[in-house]
Amino acid sequence: MLVSVKELKKYVDLNDLTSEEIANGLTFAGIEVEEVSKLASGTNLVIGHILECEKHPDSDHLHVLKVDLGDKVEQIVCGAPNARKGLKVIVARVGAKLPGGEIKASSIRGVESNGMCCSLLELGVDSKYLSEKQTSGIEELPESAPIGEKDVLGYLGLDDEVLNLKILANRPDLLSLYNVAKEVGAIFNRKVNIPTFKVDDNFKTDLVVGSKTDKCLQFAGREINDIVIKDSPKFMKEALRAMGIRSINNIVDIGNYVMLLTGQPLHMYDKDKLDKHELIAKDDLSVNFVALDEKTYEVIPGDIVITCNNKAMCLGGVMGSKECAVDDKTKNIYIESAFFDGASIRHTSSRLGLSSESSSRFVKGTNRYQALDVINFASYLIKEYCEGKKFSNIVNYLDKPEVVREIKCSTKRINNRLGTEFSKEEMMSVLNKLHFDVKDSSSDEFLVKVPSFRLDVFNEADISEEIIRLLGFDHVKSVLPTLDVRVGGLTTQQYRLRQIRESLRGIGLDECLTYSLLSKENSKKFNLLNDEEHYELLNPLTDEREVFRTHILYALLESASYNFNRQNKDLALFETSNMVSLSSRSEHLAIVLCGNYLKRELMEKEPYDFYHMKGIVEDIFTLLGIEQSRYRFERYSSDKDELHPGKSAKIIFQNECVGVFGELHPVALKSLGLKGNVIVLEMNLDPLLNSKVTISKMSPISKFPSVNRDLAFIINKDVAASDIIKLVKKNGNSLVKDVKIFDVYEGENIFKGFKSVAISISLSKEGTLTDKEINDTLDKIKFELGKVYNAQLRM
Amino acid sequence: MENKNINEIYSLAMNEIQQSEDTNKLQELKIKFLAKKSVLSSLMSELANLPPEERKEFGKNLNDVRNRISEELAKKEAELRKNELDKKLKSETIDITLPSRKVELGGQNPFYVVKDEITDIFLNMGFEVADGPEVETDLFNFELLNIPKDHPARDMQDTFYISDNVLLRTHTSPVQAHVMQEANGKPIRIICPGKTYRRDDDDATHSHQFAQIEGLVIDKNINIGHLKATLELFAKKMFGEKREIRLRPSYFPFTEPSVEVDITCANCGGKGCSMCKGTGYIEILGGGMVHPNVLKMNGYDPDEYSGFAFGIGIERVAILRFGIDDIRRFYQNDVRFLHQYRRKA
Predict the structure, then answer these.
(1) Which residues in chain B are closer than 8 Å to A538, comparing Cβ atoms?
(2) pLDDT at position A658, please?
(3) For the segment A344-387, what is each residue's pLDDT rounded down to a tens digit?
(4) Cα atoms found within 13 Å of the Cα of residue A628, Cβ hemisphere only
(5) Which end of chain A is less packed: N or C, by CB atoms within 10 Å?
(6) Residue A265 lies in a domain
(7) Which of A353, A377, A398 is the C-terminal boundary of a domain?
(8) How far apart, in whole angstroms, are the C-alpha atoms of residue B174 and residue B187?
C-alpha cells in the first residue's frame, strides 16, 4: 500500500514529524514501512522563461537559450527537441542537486552553459506517470507559470513523499488511507479528522439490487444522472499519482480515489447501456465474458458475476464488462459498493490471471458496513467534479445486519500473557485511541467493542496484541521461564546419528546438503535400495524438481559432478537425510568417494577403492557397538548398469539388506561425466540407529605371549578370503585367536585361475605354548587347506 | 726408576687417548695399555722382584695408573659415541616444512554448523528435539495452526501440493501440532530442526527448499517475557555476548501477539551500516504467544495453559554469521566452500 504523506496530513496533524519518523512509528506498531520515497527531488530549481532560442553553432541538435530566471538571465545549452522561444520551463541552476547528480557551470562544444532545463524524468518522477511527450523532452509549463518561482516541486504538486506499507494478512483494513490515518493518530496520540459527506437524494430510482449467492452478502447502488466526463481536479491527480495509480478521467479517478481512502472498491455502470434497471449478483453462470480490457474470459459456476437481465455485466470485484463500461459519452451511471467473499474472488482471480487493486482488496477482506458512507463520499466528489446534479436514493441489499463483536477483557490475564504490569487505565486508553469502544466493568475487567473496520480482532489475545504493539515490547520483562527440571537432550537415535556424522567428518569426509526434489527420470537412478514408491508433486515449478526423492545418492553424485567439472577431482562426500516414501520414513546415509584418498597432498596418493568404503561401513557398525558377527556382506547383483558387478556388495543386518555399495559401473560413470574410480554407498541407517546394543564386559587380556606364524599358499582364485579365515579358525584346535590376510597376489609366476595368499596366524592359550602344540596346529591347518581347497603350500 | 717409568706410561696413555678420533683407536689403546701383554702388565710382573718395602708403594701406584687410564678410556669412549650419534642425527635432518601426512578433517556444509549449534544451545536449556514429516497434510500444515482453507495467510506461503490434502510442509510449525497432540496436555519444551519447501524460484536470496528450527514451550503462566529472555540467551550464544535483541509486532496466524525479532547488527554493533541498511538491527526470526485457537485445537485449555513458539531460518542465520553471498551455495556442495568450515564453530 502506497501512502501519500501529503494526503495523510490532511486527516492527522503530523506537520512536526518527518516522513521517516512517521514510518518508524508505524513499523514499531507492527505495520512495516518498507520504503520512504520522494515523488521527485531537486534543489535550486526555478521556473524560467525562454527569451531566446538559437541553434548551437557547432551542433545540429543543441540549442543555445537565454532564459529569464526572474532575478537574472542565464545562458543555457539545451538538447531537448521541444526547446523554443517563449516556453516556460523548469530550470536547475548551477549547484542544483538532482537525482542524477549536481549541475555545474560548463562549456558545451565551446559555448558557456549555466544550468539545465529539466524534464520531470530528470527530477526522479517515475516514467509510468508520464506521457511520451513528457519523457522525450523538457517539461512544458503552462503560460500562467510564475517566472522566478523557487518552490517548483510545490508548484507541480510533486513535493510529496510516499510510504510503502507492507500489509500483512491480518490488517486488510490498512488498505485504506483513512484507516492508516487512524492508526497513525493512535501511535502519535493525535486527533484524526475523517470527513463524512452526505449527498441527499433528489429522485427515487427504479434500480433493483440483490444477490442470489452467499458469496455476495451486501450490494448497494445509486443512480446518478447528467454527469460530465472530463479531466480530474489537480489534487486528485496528484494524490493518485503518489499512491501509484494513473489518472484516466474524473469518474474513473473518483472510483479509485474513494477506494484508496476508504478501502472499498467501487464499480460504475453506464446506465444507458443496460437492458434493464437491475443488478443482481449470481454465481451459477457459464458464459464467455468480454471484459473492459477487451479480452474474453470464461466464467464458470462459482465465479461471482453481477448480472442484468441474466447477462454478465461485471465479474464481481475483478473487472467490469466492455458492454456497459463508462466512456467519454456516458451521462447516467449506477454506482456499486458491494461485499464479495474473498476466497471466491481469490479463486476467480487466480484462475483467470486477472488481479487488480480492487480484487486484491476483496481477497484480503473489506468492511461491508460502510457502503452507504462510501457511496455518499463518491456522490459528493461526482457532484463537485463531474457536474452531477441528479442523485437517487441508495438501494442496499444486506444479508445480515452488523453484529458488533464484544470482548470481555481482564487486566490481569492480559498482563500475564504479556509479561507486563500495565494498569487497566493504560490498556483502556490505548484501545480508545485505536477507535475501540471500551467500557469499564470491574476493578480488573473491561468490555471492548470492536469497530467494524477491524476484521482481525476476536478475542482477548488479539486485544493483548493491540495493547503491546502500541505500548511497546520494551515494557516486557525479560525472564527465563522457570520450568520443571527434567532431562532434555537427544534421544539415543538422534545421538547415534550425530556420532556417525561426526566420525565420518573425522575420517575426512565432507558433509553435504542436497535438494529433496528430483526429476522423474533422475529419481529412478541409483535408487540402490529400490524404494520406488515416491510422492509426486501436483504443481511442480519445473520438471527438474517434481518428485520427492526416496534416496540421496543421485543428488550427491550430482554434487560430485559439480565439483569434478571445477577441477576438484579428489572427493569424499556424504549426506544423511530423512527419506519419505509413500509407505515409510527412514534416515539414510549416502557416500561418494572419488579419485584419491589424500594422504599427503600431491606427494603420496592412494586411489579410493571398494575396500575403503567397506572399511567405512565397518567403522559405522563398530561405532554403534554392533559386533562383526551381527552383519555380513553379500555380493550385489542388479540388471542396471549402475554398479560394477564384480566390485559391489550388499550389507545384510538382522536379515535385511540395509545398504548397497560399490564401484560405479563404467556406463554410469560416463553418463555422470565422471572419470576414474568412484565408489558409492546408500544405506538405511534406521535399523542401526534402533538396534539394541548390550554393554560389552571387558574380556581378559592374556598374561601369556601369543605366537605368530605366517603361511603362504597358492589357491583357486575364486576361494573367498573369508572362507580361508573361517577354515583356519575352525581347525585351529582353539589355539588360533586371529587370522589376518597380509598379501594376495595374482599374475606372473602364478597359474591363471589361481592366486597366492599369505596369512598370519596368531596362536595363544592360558599357559605357555609348546613347539609341539604349535606345529600340530599348523600341520592340521595345512592339511585341511589342501584337502578342502586344494591349496599348495609355498616355501 | 720404576716410578718414573710408570709416570711416562701414564702421560703417553693420556696423550694417546686424548688424540683418539674414533672408538676403534680406543680399542687399540685399551689393548696397548691394559691388556695382558701391555707395558703396565709387564711392570706388574716385575713387582715380585722388588724389595718388600717398595712393593706395596709401587703396586699401589701401578694400580692407580691402571685405573685412571681405564677411566679415561671410558670417558673418551662415551664422548666419541655421543659425537658419532650427534653426527648421524644431524645427517638425518628433514625439511619440517614439507606437508604433513594425515587424514584431513572433513569439511562441513555451514548449514550443519549452524543447525547443530542452535540445537545444542537449546539442548543445554533443557529442550528436546522433536521430529516431524516433511510430507504433511493440509490439516497439520494449515488448519491446526489457525490457517483455515482460503485464509489470506495461505497466500504468504506458496505451497507444493502432492494431492488436495497432502503437501510438502511450508514451515516446521506443523510439528507444534504433532507434539501437542502427542503430549496429551502435559508441558512441552521442544525444538524441531527440519527442511521446508515453498514454491519459489531459486535465486541468490530465494530457495524452493530451506530449513527452519521451530521452538515450542507450553506450560502454565508462560508469557512474552519468557520468549524474550529465551531468545535473548539464544542470540548472545549464537552471535556473541554483546548482541541485543528487539521485538517488533508482526503477524503469524498461529501466534497472538506475534513478533519479529531483530538483533543488533554484528557488522556495526548497532550504529547502522550498509549490512543492516542503516537501522542497526537485522531481522533474524519470528515468534509469539501460541494462539488460543491453536492450543484449543490441539488439546490444551487456553485458560489454563499458555505457550510461546518461534521459528529460526537456518540458512538465514548461516548467511548472516558467515557472510555467505548466495543461498544456492548451500546446495551446490562445492568442496572449496565446504573446506572453509572444518573447525567446530
Answers:
(1) 161-163
(2) 96
(3) 999 999 899 998 999 999 999 999 999 999 999 999 999 999 99
(4) 5
(5) C
(6) yes
(7) A398
(8) 18
Count up the domains in chain A and report the number.
6
User: Mean pLDDT throughout A29-43?
Assistant: 91
Structure-block grid coordinates of residue A176: 485504506
CA distance A27 to chain B (A): 8
B21-79 pLDDT, tens digit per residue, is 888 888 888 888 888 777 777 777 777 788 888 888 888 888 888 888 889 989 999 99
Condensed to tens digits (0 to 9), the pLDDT of residues B277-289 reads: 888 888 899 999 9
Q: Is B333 in Cβ contact with A573 (below 8 Å)?
A: yes
pLDDT of A205 strictly over 90: yes
Partner-chain contact B160 A459, CB within 8 Å: no
Residues A396-430 as b or e (16 or more Cβ within 10 Å = b):
bbbeeeeeebebebbbebbbebbbbebebebbbbb
pLDDT at B345: 46
Sequence spans of domains, chain B: 2-91, 110-338
Our CA-based measurement puts residue A711 at a distance from the nearest CA of chain B, in whole angstroms, of: 32
Contact between B288 and B251 under an 8 Å Cβ cutoff? The reply is no
Of A28, A29, A462, the CB nearest to B256: A462
Nearest neighbour of B134 by CB, restricted to A464, A513, A578: A578
Residue A603 to residue B99, Cβ atoms within 8 A: yes
Tens-digit pLDDT profile for residues A108-134: 898 999 999 999 999 988 887 788 888
Q: What CATH number is given to the structural domain containing A106?
A: 2.40.50.140
Report chain A residues whose CB lies below 8 A from the CB of B257: 418, 461, 464-465, 468-469
Residues A504 and A444 in one domain: no
Residues A170 and A55 occupy one common structural domain: no
Residue A637: count of CB within 10 angstroms of its CB: 9
User: Is residue B241 classed exposed, middle or buried when 0-12, 13-18 and 19+ CB atoms within 10 A define those classes?
Assistant: exposed
Lowest-pLDDT range, A19-28, A338-347, A491-500, A530-539?
A: A530-539
Other residues' Cβ atoms within 10 Å of the Cβ of residue B85: 10
Q: What is the pLDDT of residue B47?
A: 76
Q: Determine the structural domain holding residue A661 and report its residue range.
A: 492-689
Q: How far is B36 from chain A (nearest CA, A)?
A: 46
d(CA A537, CA B163): 8
Contact B230 A601 (CB under 8 A): no
Tell whether A548 is within 8 A of chain B (Cβ): yes
Task: Indicate which of A351, A408, A417, A491 best probes the interface with B, i.e. most B CBs within 10 Å of its own CB.
Answer: A417
| Cell numbers given for B290 | 501460541
Is A387 found in the same domain as A356?
yes
Which residues of chain B lie closer than 8 angstroms to A574, CB-CB? 106
Q: Complex ipTM above 0.90?
A: no
Q: Helix, strand or coil for residue A722?
A: helix
For A163-173, the pLDDT digits (tens) are 999 999 899 99
Pairing type for strands A736-745 and B128-129 reads unpaired
The answer on A255 and A315 residing in a single domain is: yes
Which residues on A lie below 8 Å from B217 (Cβ)?
A: 481, 483
* pLDDT tens, position by position, A669-718: 999 999 999 999 999 999 999 998 888 788 888 888 889 999 999 999 99
> What is the dotted CATH code of the domain comprising B110-338?
3.30.930.10
For residue A180, give how far its alpha carbon lies from the nearest alpha carbon of chain B (Å).
16
What residues of chain B, 41 to 70, have a C-beta less than 8 Å from chain A? Answer: none
* A299 pLDDT higher than 50: yes
Q: What is the CATH number of the domain that holds A243?
A: 3.50.40.10
Question: How far is B222 from chain A, CA to nearest CA, in Å?
Answer: 7
Could you give the dihedral angle defined by the CA atoms of residues A139, A144, A149 and A151, in that order, rounded to the nearest 10 degrees? -60
Say if residue A170 is in the same domain as residue A239: no
Residue B344 binned pLDDT confidence (cut-offs 50, 70, 90): low
